[in-house]
Amino acid sequence: MSAKVWLVGAGPGDPELLTLKAVKALNQADIVMIDDLVNPAVLEHCPAARVVPVGKRGGCRSTPQAFIHRLMLRYARQGKCVVRLKGGDPCIFGRGSEEADWLTTHGIEVEMVNGITAGLAGATHCGIPLTLRGIARGVTLVTAHTQDDSSLNWPALAQSGTTLVVYMGVAKLPEVRDSLLAGGMRADMPVAMIENASLPHQRECRSTLAAMQQDAHDFQLKSPAILVIGEVAAQQQIHALAEIA
After folding, report:
1. What's the total number of domains in the chain?
2. Does 140 lie in the same domain as 86?
3. What CATH number does the domain containing 58 carry?
4. Which pTM does this prediction carry?
5. Is 129 helix (H, G, I), strand (E, B) or coil?
6. 236 and 124, same structural domain?
7. What is the pLDDT along the chain (245 residues), one digit of tens a residue?
8. Where does a domain end: 86, 113, 140?
9. What is the CATH number of the domain that holds 223?
10. Which domain holds residue 225?
11. Domain end point (choices 52, 80, 113)
12. Among residues 35, 80, 189, 212, which one is catalytic?
């Protein structure tokens, strides 16, 4: 393989959460294809690169995925160092594997660079540990939006005993609430709704499963936001860490 594309996770928003490997890739980049949710501050690491916006946002005018594929391929075949810069982690609801598969089948080498996902960073900044001995034995990451509009196995999720982190759930709060309640989750299960994870203007709204839709409305919750559902959402153990940082 003579051409290469880096699929890089920019993290949840705080530019200080960018990994050293991501910085290295950006330093080498000729072309940076950037998603909407990437903090522009990270572009200081690639001052000489051409930045190409290729954002995809639910409910908004978005760049077609097929066009993104072709553009990456074109630049790579021109011998450019291409960085596809994604919010969060490329392989957590970021189409990273789809893009890697497509590029590889067209003879392009791919290197994936992980980024911190919003569900983890947002919870940490609110003092919420996603797992906690004796309280939460695991964590499950899900998206409320599926490609074919099929429904998740909400009863299994409700009974899993794990912390649920729901991405892209603001528009589907009634469905999430009703499905989990129907699956047997307690109405008073703690919920944290976290907007703009890790950024200076991050906001959080603490609620319960039954009340979260009304509380989100009163709070004027907006995307991008994640939902943390589980006993740990009542915790505020680690604010000191965020303050020190």
Report:
1. 2
2. no
3. 3.40.1010.10
4. 0.90
5. coil
6. yes
7. 458 999 999 999 999 999 999 999 999 999 999 999 899 999 999 999 999 999 866 555 678 999 999 999 999 999 999 999 999 999 999 899 999 999 999 999 999 999 999 999 999 999 999 999 999 999 999 998 776 777 899 999 999 999 999 999 999 999 999 999 999 999 999 999 999 999 999 999 999 999 999 999 999 999 999 999 999 999 986 554 444 44
8. 113
9. 3.30.950.10
10. 118-242
11. 113
12. 35
Verify whether residue 56 is a known catalytic residue: yes
Q: Which residue has the tokens 């810069």?
A: 85
24 is a catalytic site residue: no
The single residue of 33, 72, 112, 168 carrying the catalytic annotation is 168
189 catalytic residue (yes or no): no
The reply to whether 55 and 133 lie within a common domain is: no
Per DSSP, 223 falls in state S
- Phi then psi for residue 182, to 5 deg, are -65, -30
Which one of 4, 24, 56, 172 is the catalytic residue?
Answer: 56
